Every structure is written in C-alpha cells, then in structure tokens.
Amino acid sequence: MKNEQYIQSCHSLRNELLGYLQRLTGRPAIAEELLQETLLRGHLHQAELPDSHVELRAWLFTVASRLAIDTLRKHSNWRENAMDDLREAAESNADFINLSRQLIGTPETKNIAKEHLAACFTCLLRTFPEQKAAALLLKEVYGFSVEEVADQLETSFSQVKNWLQETRRTMNAIYGASCALVTKNGVCHQCVELDGFFASNSSDPLAESPRDLQARLAVLHELRDKGMGRWHVLLFELLDELS
Question: Which residues of the chain have pLDDT under 70?
C-alpha cells in the first residue's frame, strides 16, 4: 500500500477507530494513545497491508482490539458502579458544574441524551471480560461478521457466538432491572435528566424503539464514527480522580 493511500484511508477511519476504542476502554485518553499506536503500526507495516479499504479497516480494527485488550488486562480496575460514581463526582466538582452550565443549549450537547445512553452502555460493557466486550462491539456496532470477529480476537466461531449470546442476555437483564426507560421501576434515567439540563429537547432516546438492547445497539451504530462528545470525555476523565 502506498503511503498516500494509507494516509487517506486512516483519515477516513480515524473517528470510527477512536469511537470503538473509547467504547471498549471507557478511558478517552487511553483510547487516543491506543489509536496512535494502531495507526503507527499500520504505517510501519505498509508494505504488508492490503490495498482494499475494507480489508485495511479489518486489519486496523484487529490491531486496535488486541492493543486495547492487552491494556485492559493490565489495568483492570473498572468500577462496577462507574456511572453512579461519576455522577456523584461531577455534582461535587465546581469546575465541572460551571463548564456544564456553559454548554447549556449549545450544539455540543444537542444529542446529549443519545450520547449518555452510549456512555451508559460503555460503563456496563466494561464490567464484562475484555474479549466478550470487544466481540459485541465489533459484531453489533461496527458490522463485522462472526467469522471476522473470531479472526480478529483469535478464537473460534462458536466461542464468539457464545460470547454474543451470553453478553446480550446479561445486558438485557441488567437494563430491565435498572433503566427507567425500559421499566417504570428502573432507578436510572440520567440520559433524560441531562437532556433537560442542557435544554437539548431530544428527550427519551428510545422513545421510537422497543427499548431493548437492540435499540441501544442501533444508537451506538448511529454514533459509531463520532465517539464521545466533549462533555462525556470530560466526565469520564473524572474516573482517574476516583481511582
């Protein structure tokens, strides 16, 4: 692959790769570092890269996945109640509150409810083993086939299918018990609260859907090449202060 072709392909894939790494790690700064390492490895191996954009995309996602999984295994200190902890930290941080007020009604928070639903998904996904989390994102959000995911994660077709079934079943159960968008008995409706705070007027991000995991995955797919918005990047950075 020629250098110019590689640079052009990387430019078109950068946001998608960054969004994937942000969703998988839940750490924006780490995701950026992993993205740079992924692109660097591609640059160093240009002579071996496929000319096809589709095949290059799969190659880069494979590298990104393996780098992220290795990193997560070395630093597996995720908080199971991360979203609740983040809310408490944000509400007690005067600087963060002031910045949030400055963003009220701005284009940056226009889709805040959907972005928060995606952020909630990230928090929940991080409680699963790294390969299971990567498999769900790769297959259901980024459109790779089960066979491709198996190759990317160096496992079998049947193992990926099992991971997908187990993760989907568990996530549906958790959402059904805690999300107020799914059941009136749910305890969490932060996405709708934020929509009101930021005057976004988009309201319930699942209003036109069955309110199940598949609907959430559709939102993730819609945002897959956007990654976290500025407010959520700043929110997730508070995790480092909680560690």
Answer: 76-77, 182-187, 243
